[in-house]
Design goal:
- The chain is of the alpha+beta class.
- It is globular, with a radius of gyration of 17 Å.
- It contains 3 helices and 8 strands; from the N terminus they run αββββββααββ.
- The strands form 2 sheets. A 5-stranded mixed barrel has the order 1-2-3-6-5. It has a two-stranded antiparallel ribbon with strand order 7-8.
- A hairpin with a 5-residue loop joins strand 5 (75-82) and strand 6 (88-93).
- Helices cover 24% and strands 37% of the residues.
Length: 126
């Protein structure tokens, strides 16, 4: 009985570690920027005032959710998406491997003119 429970726990821990290490795929609408949470839901996006959307999700480098209050006054390089009102909806704090993917658009105009390869998660300029 104890062996079965130990095996089940080991499988769950190994599966969780594997999921946490899986590369993240970002949508073609994701832009790159810098955020600083100042007073949730208020923040600075590329040093300009911005706001988190209702239901916004911030994901840490390991893809775990981060509460905006836990990220106060920290400068974070991120990929993010915007909702229809221009508020940040999805935010991914980038790990070193993701930061190395360059170029990555930082404005909607760049994203509209550059070409995105979703399989490789890379952008190319025209």
């Amino acid at each position: 009985m104890h062996r079965c429970a130990l095996t089940a726990v080991t499988l769950v821990v190994c599966a969780s570690a594997a999921v946490a290490q899986a590369p993240r795929n970002f949508p073609a609408t994701a832009l790159r920027g810098e955020i600083v949470v100042t007073a949730p839901p208020e923040l600075l996006l590329n040093r300009q005032p911005a706001r988190l959307a209702p239901g916004a999700r911030i994901r840490a480098m390991d893809n775990m959710l981060v509460m905006s209050g836990a990220a106060l006054n920290q400068r974070m390089l991120v990929n993010y998406t915007l909702d229809l009102q221009g508020q940040l909806l999805d935010v991914w704090i980038l790990n070193p491997a993701e930061l190395a993917r360059r170029p990555w658009p930082s404005t909607p105009q760049e994203a509209a003119t550059w070409r995105f390869n979703a399989d490789l998660q890379t952008w190319s300029r025209p």
